[in-house]
């Protein structure tokens, strides 16, 4: 029997959940529903179903989440990383100038209004 098959949800605390959800709706395009959350449906993101969602614990002294002091970081799939980062900068968001590109895709980061570092990932073509 298979046990865990993927990420079923990401849950975290916020000082002002409604305001933070609105920031994610406006700046990252999340479809925040009436119940306050988002349901990511794979067939809407990738009709071929070849995408993956990663889960990975980091050592407690990692600096990868910096400058955030949160004990988590969420990675969101995006279609056009460079265009999104440019739009976020134009909207006044706190965008990291660093972008990593490798065989694993393109990675960029933005800090949300509560100081959480958000990773944005454009998967390689076909994934």
Describe the structure in your own words:
The chain is 20% helix and 17% strand. The chain has a single domain, classed as Signal recognition particle alu RNA binding heterodimer, srp9/1, CATH 3.30.720.110. It is built from three helices and five strands. A hairpin with a 5-residue loop joins strand 4 and strand 5. It is globular and about 40 Å long. The protein is α+β, with helices and mostly antiparallel strands. Strands 1, 2, 3, 4 and 5 form a five-stranded mixed sheet that branches. InterPro entries: Anthracycline_SecMetBiosynth (IPR052164), Glyas_Bleomycin-R_OHBP_Dase (IPR029068), Glyoxalase_6 (IPR041581), VOC_core (IPR037523).
Q: Helices and strands in order, then pairings?
A:
Elements (H helix, E strand, L loop, with lengths): L16 H12 L13 H4 L28 E4 L3 H10 L3 E2 L4 E3 L2 E7 L5 E6 L5
Parallel strand pairs: 1-5
Antiparallel strand pairs: 2-4, 3-4, 4-5
Q: Label the overall shape.
A: globular
CATH topology title = Signal recognition particle alu RNA binding heterodimer, srp9/1
Q: Any idea what the radius of gyration is?
A: 15 Å
> What would you call the structural class?
alpha+beta
Largest sheet: 5 strands, mixed
| CATH uppermost class | Alpha Beta
Taken in chain order, the helices and strands follow as HHEHEEEE
Write down how many β-strands occur, each being a DSSP E stretch of 2 or more residues: 5
Bin the strand percentage.
15-25%
How many separate structural domains?
1
Low-confidence stretches: none
Protein name: VOC family protein
Pfam family, one: Glyoxalase_6
